[in-house]
Write a structure and sequence with these properties.
The protein is of the alpha/beta class and 344 residues long. It has 11 helices and 15 strands. The longest helix has 17 residues.
Length: 344
């Protein structure tokens, strides 16, 4: 298993950047476009992003077919097309886009999503420059408060989908539950569903972004979310920005394999004491038994994770069990057979 990254984008994938050298606006927020399989009207999509007024647009071109990039880069000079030379994980795509931008905020979107409420990008950035409490008290706006702001997302039938993610301890294991965040302004979420959200670029880089060594998207997101909350960052929901999928929302693969084992060692196994965290040696026998690896491979992975925890030990604010146990207990209602979540 490869070495856990210590700094942001420690190793970059091979890629070519085309276009995107002209700034369209100066709002402080740019868009990152991820492309799912399927033919979508790209010109129309870029025109919609143009109306929203993002400073720049980064389009991650994961498909080997780049037949329209030259024509589109001429029509939309503020769009930078990132042509990947090899397949990389979803988290790595977001990391790469963040490294190509200098805007304080970036909005991660998919090509099968539409923004149908939220205003211009300038209005979005203005909302995020102060907390809800400051708005209510009329205080002066401060710097951005969150690592990531998660929007409300609906399906093609305009039904709110369960994108608010809550950790839960089940049979001594940490799992997740998904809720539809109706009327839940400011509620915390473990991580941004499908990667979609408005990220604070500086906080994102300081956190280390997504772990490129985790290839399973679900565990990559879980690692990002737990690390964020363990280190005192905020990921929360707003209903003032609304998106809709053209089709159905994607499903998540929770298979427990190598990515899960690394997630476990980095996030669930460390113990927090006083002002720092550490991964105690007494955790190794149980890890060896559950991993199914040979002792030498298991010890190598355990030792690597232990070194990583030691390097970052003073960034912890609590341990994983404390996060799950003290998470704000939501008021859950069932509306037409669907669970919805509201602030207590």
């Amino acid at each position: 298993m490869s070495t856990i990254p210590i700094i942001f984008n420690e190793t970059l994938p091979s890629y070519t950047a085309v276009g995107g050298r002209e700034r369209f606006a100066s709002t402080g927020i740019s868009a990152v476009l991820l492309n799912r399989n399927g033919r979508y009207p790209r010109r129309t999509f870029f025109q919609e992003l143009e109306k929203t007024g993002f400073d720049y647009v980064i389009s991650i071109e994961s498909s080997p077919e780049h037949y329209d990039v030259e024509e589109l880069s001429g029509r939309f000079p503020y769009v930078r097309f990132i042509l990947l030379k090899q397949e990389i994980s979803l988290g790595e795509q977001i990391n790469l886009a963040a490294s190509e931008l200098d805007s304080p905020l970036f909005f991660v979107l998919w090509n099968d999503l539409k923004i149908f409420a939220g205003g211009t990008s300038g209005r979005m950035a203005e909302r995020l420059s102060c907390g809800q409490e400051e708005k209510e008290n009329g205080e002066k706006k401060g710097p951005f408060k969150r690592l990531c702001t998660v929007p409300l997302i609906q399906n093609s039938r305009f039904e709110t989908i369960p994108t608010l993610i809550v950790p839960a301890v089940l049979r001594k294991k940490v799992d997740t539950r998904f809720f539809a965040p109706n009327n839940g302004e400011g509620l915390p979420s473990l991580y941004p569903f499908d990667g979609v959200g408005i990220y604070d670029r500086e906080r994102f880089i300081q956190l280390g972004g997504f772990d490129s060594t985790l290839k399973n998207t679900y565990w990559q997101f879980m690692d990002f979310g737990f690390r964020a909350h363990l280190w005192g960052e905020e990921i929360s929901f707003t209903q003032q920005i609304k998106l809709s999928y053209d089709g159905e929302s994607p499903t998540e693969d929770k298979t427990t394999e190598a990515s899960y084992r690394r997630f476990f060692l980095k996030n669930l196994a460390p113990v927090f004491r006083g002002d720092h965290a550490h991964l105690p040696l007494r955790r190794f026998p149980a890890y060896l038994f559950r991993s199914g690896d040979d002792p030498f491979a298991a010890w190598e992975d355990f030792s690597e994770s232990r070194r990583w925890v030691r390097t970052n030990r003073f960034r912890w604010r609590c341990d994983a069990r404390a996060i799950a146990e003290r998470w704000v207990t939501p008021h859950v209602e069932t509306v037409q057979g669907r669970e919805t979540i509201k602030r207590c």
